[in-house]
Amino acid sequence: MPVSQGRCALCRAVRPLCNSHIVPEFCYRPMYDSKGRARIISTSGKGPKYVQKGLREKLLCPECEQVINVYESYFKAFWYDKPALPRTVRRREFVVGSIDYAKFKLFHLSVLWRAGASSRVYPDVSLGSHSSRIRQMLLCGDPGPQHHYPFGGLLTVDHEGTVQLEAVTPPYSFKYKRFSVYAWRYAGCEWHYFVSRRRSLRIPFQALLPRGDLVLPVIPFTQGLVFEAFADDRRRSTRH
User: Fold this and answer.
1) What residues contact residue 83 under an 8 Å CB cut-off, 6+ apart?
2) Global pTM?
3) What is the CB-side half-sphere exposure of residue 199 using CA atoms within 13 A?
């Protein structure tokens, strides 16, 4: 529901603003307990806290919420309702096919862009001049070619091969060949977003292909850039 007037981050008009999710609410649902709460584990070393809604910020007007909802509705129907992933995976990689390249990519860019546009939820995500370019892509429904903001995912599983849908982490920033990369876990994967439009950039695994295929290497939940960064943060916090 709109709660206050402000400048919408997407259309830039001054309108009533909604409490907008950064990561959609449906990505948090597998985390909820019997009381409808999700447990948030902090890197501060303090005990977990509980929330009943995913992290939100006054960001978008109602009209722009509907623009983003087109991409979210596709992702939810394809990834969760279909579902795109099996419950368990016992192989080195899993291939997801028949993806709508435009809607799937624009969904992921919308999550990255919202994080960059937020001032409170994820203030450390900085997209610079790329923010306005991605904003236009979202408004126009234009996913761009494959080398514009490529991304891919690593499928996270436990020791029994069960896909770990019950995790939403903050994004962590890294550098890859001088380019910014944001690594983020939600929807069962560790997603890597490369903030680049350089055709010459070769990312270390296969990005989403325009023909609609996505190859997901499978990793244990306790591996990957996000887990290592989270563990490092915990170790530093406990020393203070």
Assistant:
1) none
2) 0.90
3) 2
